[in-house]
Amino acid sequence: MSDRRHWTLEEEDAMISILEGIVADGGRCDTGSIRPGTYEHVVLKMREKIENITIKAKHVQKKMKRLKDKYSAAYDMLNTSGLGWDDTRKCVTIDDPEILTEYLKKHPNKNYTANRPFPHYERLVTVFGKDRATGQTSNQKRKRNGSSTVADITKVFEKSMERTSTEIAKLTEAITGRDAMTRLGVELEGMCLNRMQVIRITMYFGNKSNQLRIWNGLNDSYKPNFVKAILEE
């Protein structure tokens, strides 16, 4: 007889809520994986929450694996240029179907399909966010190996951003001159922007020297609105 169990929406929601509580209480290892004994603990909590439920640790383990595989597939899509998140529909969306076609050629998966609602994704970031076994950037091509630590992920991301920043600096320096871009960088640092926003704005001006001249001629009080307009394009 198959061990596969049908889960109701109530049961799935209850399990995720319990896992969120476990993570909040420190029930996750430094590597991000769930600590031993978690499945049994979830079973006990679910029996408290849902009357007459029939469930075993192996059911929880398999359900968590399916959710993690689905989360991992969606996570990797969201770290690919051209794919984004629709907060209203709660799903991964695409700007161009060809982008998804090319992505699936390189990263075939049956765990999640773009444009299909995934309402639990943001909650699963809390549960599985540090336990990623796939690449963390859109140009990272190593396969899942399950051995990545939080420190490894951070280093990969930082190195990727450093390489991107270096290439942007070279491009914009050649087009607009070192002094203009240096001034721009100093101004952006004082605007409480995150790294990706700074990179996006720098790339924008790197390809549009006329707009950079307009920027340099603006009163400082108008520049935050200029930045907002660029980010909303």
UniProtKB/TrEMBL annotation:
Myb/SANT-like domain residues: 6-96
The name this protein goes by in its record: Myb/SANT-like domain-containing protein
Organism: Dipteronia dyeriana
